[in-house]
Design goal:
With 428 residues, this protein is an alpha/beta fold. Among the domains are: 90-121 and 148-206, no CATH class; 247-414, SHC Adaptor Protein (2-Layer Sandwich). Helix content is 57%, strand content 7%. It has twelve helices and six strands. Strands 1, 2, 3, 4, 5 and 6 form a six-stranded mixed β-sheet that branches. A hairpin with a 6-residue loop joins strand 2 (344-349) and strand 3 (356-362). Helix 3 (21-56) crosses helix 6 (208-244) and helix 4 (90-145) packs antiparallel against helix 5. The longest helix is centred in the middle third of the chain and has 57 residues, at 150-206. The radius of gyration is 44 Å and the shape is elongated. The model is unreliable at 255-292 (pLDDT under 50).
Length: 428
């Protein structure tokens, strides 16, 4: 089941709903590990292809080099902004950036005004040129008729000089005014941007609801990280226990050689059903079903693959275990457990997958753990690596060892059937 999920990188939403929070965290951790492993494989392949391509290409002399400045310790010299005494504070740097942007904006506006004035001046100069040409023609005509005296010519020259001086002074005044306008506009833009920045900072500081929401989100992130860390630690702890105590794994390896007691009388099945299913056939036949699987498919799976293994029997193999139930839903299992004490549990055949679900009641509510039955043994999906030869061994082990270290779930009180009702009658 877990191998199928990791190979597809997909888990059915209905199947995900059966998982507890700890199992979801572990499953996410395993899927993330698989993604990293695949990414590393792809990176290794790409690097290998690049090396092959470089080997096939002729070597070209490259004159490009990179030289790093070294510090007193003969290592690469690094400047960390803000740590040196001559570095400017953040507020000063922001003010300089805003002032520079305001200056550029004012210069841009001044350039646009200058271009507009130049266009107007070019039009005026054209008209003045035409007018002077006309006046010159008229004066030539007058001179031809009446000759000016030397005094009159001197007056005309003086008038022209005065006009030129006035034009020069006008140009200087206009440039001075333009510079003053540029400075005023720069200061105005700077003040507007500075005021807008101060208002924004003030709103952010005074917005108590936003601050409260930020605190809650940070606290939620910390809780999620703590839960994920707790789940990973739990997963590693139980995995190390399984490695150190190899008795269960060794028993699971020789599971096919164990001689089991005869089953109690049951309805006759086909000859293929009565034969013991070897481990390779069992592994190939088990797979994750989609959400459209039917009750008949699960019943067929249980009769053909689980009954020969005495799934649901007690450790002696003489009778059905009191905690075993048939194909019942999540709500039905909680209905059975609601009248029981905290620590009560039952194992039911899942109605969505080829596997089992352990439903557990604790003081605050109910928890449901998926049991993977697709390998040669039984184990909780995503909680630990410990494998058990039978469901009864799994229950017996967790009577003293908690399922997770977060809530310390111990299987204390088995929950049996309703009076006069047997929910596994269609399976056995």
């Amino acid at each position: 089941m877990l191998k199928q999920i990791l190979s597809d990188m997909f888990i059915d939403p209905e199947l995900l709903a059966e998982l507890s929070e700890e199992q979801k965290q572990i499953l996410f951790f395993k899927m993330r590990e698989e993604q990293v492993r695949r990414w590393k494989e792809i990176e290794a392949k790409l690097e290998k292809n690049e090396v092959v391509q470089k080997c096939n290409k002729p070597n070209k002399a490259s004159h490009k080099t990179v030289n790093w400045n070294l510090g007193a310790n003969q290592e690469v010299w690094v400047w960390v902004m803000g740590e040196h005494s001559s570095d400017k504070p953040y507020d000063v740097v922001c003010d300089e950036i805003i002032a520079e942007q305001a200056r550029k904006q004012a210069e841009k506006e001044a350039e646009e005004r200058r271009r507009a004035q130049e266009q107007e001046l070019s039009k005026l100069t054209k008209t003045l040129t035409l007018r002077t040409q006309n006046e010159t023609v008229e004066r030539c005509k007058e001179n031809s008729e009446n000759k000016f005296t030397a005094k009159e010519e001197a007056k005309i020259a003086e008038v022209k000089i005065n006009e030129e001086n006035e034009n020069k002074s006008t140009i200087v005044k206009s440039k001075t005014k333009e510079n003053e306008k540029l400075e005023e506009r720069t200061q105005e833009i700077y003040m507007n941007w500075k005021e807008a920045q101060e208002i924004k900072q003030k709103i952010e500081k005074e917005d108590s609801e936003w601050q409260e929401t930020l605190k809650k989100s940070k606290a939620a992130d910390e809780r999620r990280k703590s839960m994920a860390k707790q789940a990973r630690d739990d997963y590693k702890r139980l995995s190390m226990q399984a490695i150190n105590k190899g008795s269960v794994a060794e028993k699971a390896q020789h599971f096919g050689d164990i001689k089991r007691p005869l089953l109690p009388p049951k309805p006759k099945l086909s000859s293929s059903t009565n034969s013991r299913i070897n481990r390779s056939e069992r592994r190939q036949g088990l797979r994750r079903l989609n959400s459209s699987c039917t009750r008949d498919n699960i019943i067929k799976w249980f009769r053909e693959e689980q009954l020969p293994l005495q799934a649901g029997w007690d450790r002696s193999g003489s009778s059905i275990a009191p905690w075993f139930h048939g194909i019942i839903s999540r709500l039905e299992s909680e209905d059975l457990l609601k009248v029981q004490e905290p620590g009560s549990f039952l194992i039911r055949v899942s109605e969505k997958i080829h596997g089992y679900v352990l439903s557990y009641r604790y003081e605050e509510g109910y928890m449901h753990f998926l049991i993977d039955a697709s390998g040669t043994a039984y184990s909780f999906l995503g909680v630990d690596q410990r494998q058990h030869a039978t469901l009864a061994d799994l229950v017996e082990y967790h009577k003293t060892e908690p399922i997770t270290s977060l809530r310390k779930e111990l299987l204390l009180y088995p929950c049996g059937q309703h009076k006069n009702i047997c929910d596994y009658s269609d399976l056995i």
